[in-house]
C-alpha cells in the first residue's frame, strides 16, 4: 500500500468539492498553485467556462483528469431515447477532449427522476434493465473514443432518484455481461461513501481486479448525516475506515489517484477554497 | 396472494406510527375501536404505562402482537456485556409476557452508537461479529421463553448508528449459522423500507422461506426524503412497489400481519391519531 503521509502526488480533487467557491478555471488555478496534480470536473462546471478554455487550462497546469463527471441517467421514457443517447455520447466526447482517465456513470434511478418528464413508475427492475441496455449501447461509442466507462454504484439511499445500481456486485455483474473479455473499456468507480457499509466489499473489490478498478473516490460518512445528498464529511471526520478500503483496492494493483469528492452544503461549501483544498491535502496524508 | 382490498383483518399497527399522539393505552383503545386486530408496541411505550397494564389492555382488546420492538444493540465495550445481555433478556421476557409473535432485533451499529459510552471505533466487521455473538447468546434464553427472534436488516444508511446488518442475505447467513435446523427460533423481519432497493430481494425472500419470515413491515420511501430517520411515507405516497414484495413474501407461505411502521416527524406524527389510523386502514386496502 502506498505511503500517502509525506506528499500528495496521488491526490485528485473532484471539483464539486469547491463548486460554490469559484468557477472551474479558478479551481484549476488553485489546484495548480498547491501542487495538486489531478482533478475530476463536472460537465456543468466545464460548460460554464467552455470546453476549449478548460482544455487549455488543464494543459497549462499539466493536470491529469482522474475522471469526468458524469454520464448516465439512462432510465427514461422511450420518447427520450435519443436525448439519453446523444447526451451520453457528448459526455464521452467531452471526456476524451479533456483527456480524462474515465467517464463516471451515475446510472439513474426510476425514469421520472432520471429524466424528468418521463412517466412515473415504481419498477426498479425495469429501470435496471434500461441502465444495462443504455450502457451497452454507449459502450460502442466509448470504445471508439478510447474512453473507459466507470459505473459508480451509489449508496442504496439513492436507488430511487439517482442510481439503481447500488452495490459493487451489481455493477460488476453488468461489467461481466457487457465486457466479458475485461478489455478495460468498462469498470467501476469505487467511492467509499457509497460502498463502505457492504459486507461483501472486500470480496467484490478482489473480483473487480485491476482491470475493472477505474477510479477511487473518498470522503467520509458523518453521524448524524443531516441531508441525504449534501452532508458528506471530510476524510477523518466520520466513521469510514478509509485506509482499510484503500488497502483492498491497492492490493488489486490499483495505482491511480485518490479523488476527494465532498458535497457539503452547510460546512465545506461555506469555507474559503484555499482552506478546503489545504484540508484535503492534510487529510489525504493523515486519513486516507 | 391475499386480497386486502375489502377488509383490514391482516393489518397491524406498529405503535411508533402514532407515538406522538397518545400513550400506548390510548393507541390500543383506538385500534380496538377501528377493528384493527394487531399491534406491535415499543418497549418505551410499554414501560410508560406498565407491562401489566399493557398486558391487560391487549387481552381486553383481544389484540394480537405481530411483534415487539425491540431487542438488539449488541456491539459494545466488553465492560457493557452484562448490560447488553440483561437488557436483551428482559426484552425477550416482556415479549413473552405480552404474547408477541416475535421479538424484533435492531442489532446495532458501531459500539459508540449502539451502546453510548463505548469506545469509538470504525471496525464494522468487528461490530458484525459482536452482533452475531450476541444473537447466539440471546437465542438460548429466547428458546427457553418460546420467543422467536426476528433479525431486521436495516437500510444501509443506518449501518453506522443503528444496525450493521443491512441486507437480507447477511441476516439469513446469520440465521443459517445459528439455527441451521430452521427450528423457527430465529428468522427475519422484512421491512420494505429497508430492503426494497436490493436487487437480490426476491431471491433472498425465497431463501428465507416460511420458516424464517417472521414479520412483514410496510411504509413507503419518499422522494425526496428529508430526514434519514423520521421521514417515512404512508404506503402509496412513495416509490416502493409494496404489492410486488408482499407477493414474494406470501409466495413463500407467509400468512401473517402486514405491520405499518411509519416514523414521520413533520407529517403523520402531526396529525390526529384517528386520521392516521384511518389512512393506514385505507392504504392497507389500496396500496399494500
TrEMBL record, chains A, B:
Name the residues that span the membrane: none
Pfam families for the chain: AP_endonuc_2
Q: Give UniProt keywords alphabetically.
A: Isomerase
Q: What SUPFAM superfamilies does the record tag this protein with?
A: Xylose isomerase-like
Q: Name one GO molecular function term.
A: isomerase activity
Residue intervals of the Xylose isomerase-like TIM barrel domain: 41-273
PANTHER family from the entry?
HYDROXYPYRUVATE ISOMERASE, XYLOSE ISOMERASE
Q: Under which name does UniProt file this protein? A: Sugar phosphate isomerase/epimerase
Amino acid at each position: 500500500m502506498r505511503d500517502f503521509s509525506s506528499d500528495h502526488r496521488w491526490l485528485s480533487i473532484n471539483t464539486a468539492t469547491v463548486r460554490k467557491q469559484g468557477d472551474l478555471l479558478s479551481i484549476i488555478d488553485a489546484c495548480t498553485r498547491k501542487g495538486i496534480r489531478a482533478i475530476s470536473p463536472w460537465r456543468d462546471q466545464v460548460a460554464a467556462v467552455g470546453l476549449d478554455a478548460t482544455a487549455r487550462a488543464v494543459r497549462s497546469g499539466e493536470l491529469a483528469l482522474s475522471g469526468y463527471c458524469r454520464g448516465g441517467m439512462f432510465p427514461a421514457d422511450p420518447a427520450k431515447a435519443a436525448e439519453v443517447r446523444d447526451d451520453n455520447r457528448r459526455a464521452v466526447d467531452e471526456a476524451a477532449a479533456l483527456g480524462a482517465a474515465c467517464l463516471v456513470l451515475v446510472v439513474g434511478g426510476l425514469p421520472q427522476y432520471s429524466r424528468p418528464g418521463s412517466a412515473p413508475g415504481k419498477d426498479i427492475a425495469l429501470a435496471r434493465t434500461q441502465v444495462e441496455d443504455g450502457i451497452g449501447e454507449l459502450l460502442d461509442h466509448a470504445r471508439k473514443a478510447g474512453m473507459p466507462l466507470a459505473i459508480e454504484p451509489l449508496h442504496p439511499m439513492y436507488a430511487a432518484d439517482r442510481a439503481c445500481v447500488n452495490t459493487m456486485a451489481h455493477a460488476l455483474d453488468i461489467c461481466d455481461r457487457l465486457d466479458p473479455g475485461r478489455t478495460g473499456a468498462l469498470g467501476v468507480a469505487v467511492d467509499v461513501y457509497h460502498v463502505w457499509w457492504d459486507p461483501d466489499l472486500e470480496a467484490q473489490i478482489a473480483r473487480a481486479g485491476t482491470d475493472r478498478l477505474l477510479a477511487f473516490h473518498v470522503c467520509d460518512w458523518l453521524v448524524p448525516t443531516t441531508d441525504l445528498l449534501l452532508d458528506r464529511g471530510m476524510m477523518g471526520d466520520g466513521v469510514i475506515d478509509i485506509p482499510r478500503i484503500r488497502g483492498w483496492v491497492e492490493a488489486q494493483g490499483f495505482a491511480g489517484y485518490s479523488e476527494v469528492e465532498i458535497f457539503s452544503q452547510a460546512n465545506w461549501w461555506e469555507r474559503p477554497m484555499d482552506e478546503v483544498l489545504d484540508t484535503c491535502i492534510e487529510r489525504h496524508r493523515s486519513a486516507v
